[in-house]
Design goal:
The protein contains six helices and no strands. With 137 residues, it is mainly alpha-helical. It has one domain. The longest helix has 33 residues.
Length: 137
């Protein structure tokens, strides 16, 4: 058990949280679309998602991260926590901007769990891609 805790201490937590924060660009653009009454198209959302994925992969490759799968999986969870926190703050202070269906108890339970699981898997997949690229270099 102590060995696992020690390994967790060795992860680049500042990088993990930073990568999670970078992914907030997508929901922030959606919120800004709501503020300025502009519908962000599915194509724009896909382009932003691809750009974030490329940024995550490129970052772990350039920094020569030894455990890209773990780091990007953790970044996915960091993004989930940050995005749900942002959604709760929006619901509290600007409820007109939030989704009518997104109530705080739902966000903090099913939303957080579902988002964390999905983004963990998505981040692990991106980490796997990054590890394959690292092996070819």
């Amino acid at each position: 058990m102590l060995m696992r805790i020690k390994q967790a201490d060795q992860l680049p937590w500042a990088l993990i949280v930073s990568l999670g924060a970078v992914a907030l660009i997508r929901p922030i653009i959606k919120v800004l679309g709501d503020v300025f009454d502009y519908n962000v198209s599915a194509l724009v959302t896909m382009i932003i998602t691809a750009a974030i994925a490329a940024t995550w992969i490129t970052t772990v490759i350039k920094l020569k991260i030894k455990k890209p799968i773990i780091v990007l999986a953790a970044s996915g969870v960091a993004y989930a926590i940050l995005s749900i926190t942002m959604a709760v703050v929006i619901q509290l202070f600007a409820p007109d901007l939030g989704d009518d269906e997104a109530k705080i108890p739902v966000l903090l339970t099913a939303g957080l769990i579902g988002s964390a699981v999905f983004n963990f898997i998505y981040g692990a997949f991106l980490g796997f891609v990054a590890s394959l690229i690292q092996k070819t270099k």
